[in-house]
Amino acid sequence: VQLQASGGGLVQAGASVRLSCAVSGRTLSRNVMGWFRQAPGKEREFVAVISSSGGSTVYADSVKGRFTISRDDAKNTVYLQMNSLKPEDTAVYYCAADRGVVVTIDSRAYDYWGQGTLVTVSS
Question: Which of 14, 44, 71, 78 has its CA 20 to 30 A from that of 101?
């Protein structure tokens, strides 16, 4: 299973960015999918998760109301729409797939990880 994250870049505060995570080697519809991020000098943290059906989502408090996770199983792709970006959102963003069926924010539960895409938000 391979996950390929893309869409990062340098943006100004207040801008919007959409990250994509293309999944290959496994049918996406069987996976809980999550986004995590790691800022310089900090530990990796949970951002958002979507259930295998797409009917359930959970967000970190820091991004709630600004970020939206979605999935297109026909394209085997998961998205993270990020609006009203802040400098503190600067991080490498990782997508991850969990073979289980329980929605979880614990990174240890995820079985497959993408390589990460850097989002830099300037003030």
Answer: 44
